[in-house]
Amino acid sequence: MRIFGGSPSPITGFFPEELRDRRFFSKKTENAFVMQENDMAIEHKRLGKHGVFVSNLCLGTMNFGWHTPEEESFRIMDRALELGINFFDTADVYGWAVEHGLTEEIIGRWFAQGNGRRDAVVLATKVYNPVTRKVNKPEPNSDGRNLSAMKIKKHCEGSLKRLQTEWIDLYQMHHIDRDCPWDETWQGFDSLVKQGKIVYVGSSNFAGWDIATACQEASKRNLMGLVSEQSIYHLNNRMVELEVIPACRHYGLGLIPWSPLAGGLLGGALKKLETGRRKGEQFEKDVQKHRPKLEQYEALCKELGEAPATVALAWLLHNPVVTAPIIGPRTVEQLNDAVRATEITLSADVLKTLDEIFPGPGGEAPMAYAW
Hints:
The chain is α/β, with parallel strands linked by helices. The chain has one domain (17-357): TIM Barrel (Alpha-Beta Barrel). It has 13 helices and 12 strands. It has helices at 70-83, 102-111, 140-143, 149-163, 182-194, 208-220, 244-251, 269-275, 281-289, 291-304, 308-317, 332-338, 348-357, and strands at 26-28, 33-35, 44-46, 53-55, 58-60, 87-89, 122-127, 168-173, 198-204, 226-232, 254-258, 326-327. GO terms for molecular function: oxidoreductase activity. Residues 57-357 form the NADP-dependent oxidoreductase domain. This is Aldo/keto reductase.
């Protein structure tokens, strides 16, 4: 893979001035789609309507510590900064197979190496899920799922300690807690903002009406409210187009899609299954269930001369509400490959073909099902 424009500053992450305004195009000839590219790769854009600039790919760290060894995790994070990726996402619960919080600890030890690493990163983590630690005694707030003010404070303190940082840039609710009053939840987050421990608040796995409620409740308290929503979104699962994306657009939230490759289904699943590079009963069932669509999809990608994973990520980047899909590389090579998606633009013909292969819910509600 070609990385254009040299290595950006590990502090600013921006590419040289002469590369910033170039664009990529694609066109369809009589017999095939032809991709055209230029020298720009990672770009920095505002998180929704808000002032902070983040890279248009977000480094997901969920694999760190149980699928990816610590040493390789360090190399991935260093390489991300070299590429201009300044947006890192984690969660207090990551590291499941070993121990909750392990991934945050790995990131913390990487920050501790210094050389401007912490200042170069817009750091996002999450709260909601149980975080059980070997050194802790059982406790229902930590061991349960909720967004109580107590849990928000307690888990923030734990994340700060593990991450070896004084602040979290984006503190996200990992899921909605409809049993906890918004008075309490927003008070919990506001207290952390006033203490300088968090900067922005985001959501994850919220329904459209949850986003609206959260934003309205924050507005009543003269708070900034949500700045982002992290949802599952990919070619084969477009349900968020009904109400979540319209809610994000209306309230100015940046959308951060997770699982952009559908757990590998959109990453060349047919070839991987045939060659034995990817196994597993559930994966095989998913491939067989969606085989007709995957055959059309991978044939289109072959015609484009691009890897299926590249096309899947590039498709997400065409949505103006999307700020940054989350990529979860297990190796530096996978990280390098992911950046290719930022170097191409899919033509209207390609986008139409993808819609035909993977039809969404029919547009936004209520027009998708009424009038």
